[in-house]
Write a structure and sequence with these properties.
The chain is mainly beta. It has no helices and eleven strands. The protein folds into two domains: about 35 residues, no CATH class; about 90 residues, Sandwich (Immunoglobulin-like). β1 and β2 form a beta hairpin. The chain is flat. The protein starts with 12 loop residues before the first strand and ends in a 15-residue tail after the last strand. The N terminus is likely disordered.
Length: about 180
């Protein structure tokens, strides 16, 4: 297990403290502890995976099959665990690198159900009639054939609205 604490030479150093308690159990922490020995440990090396390029074909390629694949697609609004107060509409956007290509479309799903009332060639949206509670938003980019070529990690957000059973006095004006 100690070998897992040491990574490649390009990683940044991290402070780790090691000590043995009165029961003989060895502990590791990022916080100093009495009788702890400071270890210099390299952080884990990371890399970004990219989708392999499609093999070249001698036949003509469709416009959606030409050019680079997307290096990134992510939901940047709403943020994960963001809370919306007293509203039935939620702004949403997806960041796509490189920009959304002609013939490709963004498909959104709210709580596992595809949203059919959103523009397909946009990257900003307004989610309408969102009920109170916790929701999950997912997004994918599809090519002209309907194949998902980039999927964004889903985000969870919360809509809070007062009701007769659970009024929200914090949102009422104070006089």
């Amino acid at each position: 297990m100690c070998a897992a604490l040491f990574a490649g030479p390009g990683a940044l150093a991290t402070e780790v403290y090691k000590w043995v308690d009165e029961n003989g159990v060895t502990h590791y922490s990022d916080q100093p502890h009495p009788n702890a020995k400071k270890l210099d440990v390299q952080s884990a090396q990371t890399f970004e995976s990219r989708m392999p390029a499609a093999p070249a074909s001698t036949s003509a390629q469709s416009p959606s099959a030409q050019g680079p694949t997307y290096s990134s697609c992510e939901i940047n609004r709403p943020e994960n665990d963001e809370v919306f107060m007293n509203t039935f509409t939620v702004p949403a956007s997806i960041r796509v690198i490189p920009a959304l290509r002609p013939g490709h479309r963004v498909v959104l799903s709210l709580d596992g159900k595809p949203l059919t009332d959103q523009p397909a060639n946009a990257t900003t949206f307004v989610l309408n009639e969102v009920e109170r509670g916790t929701h999950t938003l997912a997004a994918a980019i599809q090519d002209a054939s309907g194949n998902a070529i980039c999927r964004a990690s889903s985000v969870t957000f919360h809509v809070r609205q007062p009701s007769r059973l659970a009024p929200n006095p914090a949102n009422r004006p104070r006089f």
